Amino acid sequence: MAYLVGMPSVISGLVLLAFWLFCLFHVITTPWHEVRNLPKAAWVIIVALLPGLGGLLWLLFGRPQAPAWHDPAAGAGWREQPQPGRPIGPDDDPEFLRSLDRRLRGEE
After folding, report:
1. What angle in degrees, to the nearest 10, is found between the helix axes of 40-49 and 7-29?
2. Among 3, 13, 20, 23, which residue has the least CB neighbours within 10 Å?
3. pLDDT tens digit at each of 108 positions of the chain
4. Distance between CA 11 and CA 17 in Å, rounded?
């Protein structure tokens, strides 16, 4: 029963470690031109040296803002949206499917 007394601190320590690693990985993998308010190197140092507070500051003030999908003036955001009338992939393109059918039949 005595081992259950330390369990909340172990769990909270693991949660803090996971949060810290998530934020540190997120800072490192974010392109430098998308980082807000401070240079990327400064954010890496802040998150690395202040595990809980640094990660929270990164999430609030440093990470890139989500693209405004509903705002046509903002563009497509980080992912290009498919344009109406254009096939999304080769299997949606009728001309590609016809040429594939001809190749499979040996007509070309």
Report:
1. 170
2. 3
3. 555 566 778 888 899 999 999 999 999 999 888 888 999 999 999 999 998 899 999 999 988 876 545 455 555 444 555 566 665 676 777 888 888 888 888 865
4. 10
The per-residue pLDDT for 64 is 83
Domain that holds residue 90: 7-65+81-105
**Residue in 33, 66, 27, 22 with CA at minimum distance from that of residue 46:** 27
For 60, list phi and psi in degrees, rounded to 5.
Answer: -85, -40
Does 76 fall in a domain? Answer: no
Whether 45 maps to a domain, the answer reads yes
What is the pTM assigned to this prediction?
0.55
CA gap 48, 42 in Å, rounded = 10
For CA atoms 23, 45, 66, 87, give the dihedral sign: negative
